[in-house]
Give the backbone structure.
Amino acid sequence: MTQPAPYIFNATTADFDQSVIENSFHKPVLVDFWAEWCAPCKALMPMLQQIAESYQGELLLAKVDCDAEQDIVARFGIRSLPTVVLFKDGQPVDGFAGAQPESAVRKLLEPHVQMPPPAAADPLEQAEALFTEGRIGDAEALLKELLGEDNSNAKALILYGRCLAERGELGEAQAVLDAVKSDEHKAALAGAKAQLTFLRQAADLPEVADLKARLAQNPQDDEAAYQLAVQQLSRQQYEGALEGLLKLFIRNRGYSEGLPHKTLLQVFDLLGNDHPLVTTYRRRLFAALY
């Protein structure tokens, strides 16, 4: 069989200790025990290879032909095929026997292997992916390097401002966003400024637990409902915030001169038109309006 990548290989009795046991001290090694006559093995193997490739070298996949490597089979007491065992730090730490769906295999690997950031065509796309994953520091470091080469990149400035805001550097974030002069990314800039506004507002509001207690006593407490939504927005709990804002708008659309409606539109700018929550809540807002 052809080997799709250097981190996918055949393991034999002669090299098992080096290729699997020793390597597992550096990176987790998934060992696939298979045989030519085993139909489920042949169905499972391409999926395991695809999973290994998705980890881009952070996971090794070793394939053991059980018909040819009887010593390894006996050593690990393999009784049925396919059997898959995950080795880490020289020891088997998890595994399964029989065919499994891809989701189950990935769930098994999740505690042991870190998925690399998505491949990106350029540093800005990579920074966006890191920001989406919540890896704010990594995104910020990449953006600093990018802006060092071109400090007029509006898209990079906006994302850098959002990183600063997430870290609580609200004044610095404001200065960065104010430096954006291009009209090309109006929606993204409006969203970033909305995020900054929510973070500033939340700092002066009662705690979430207090607001929830007020609403438990009086579900019609419009002030508490709005303030809770702002607190949720500052914590990126967008679905809960959108639901609360929409309910408040339906109940009292004139609250604070139409503030729930204005805030819903700010959140739409923040998340972007392609976000599934925006699609859902824009439709629900339209239905409530008309």
Q: What stands out?
A: The longest helix spans residues 186-203.
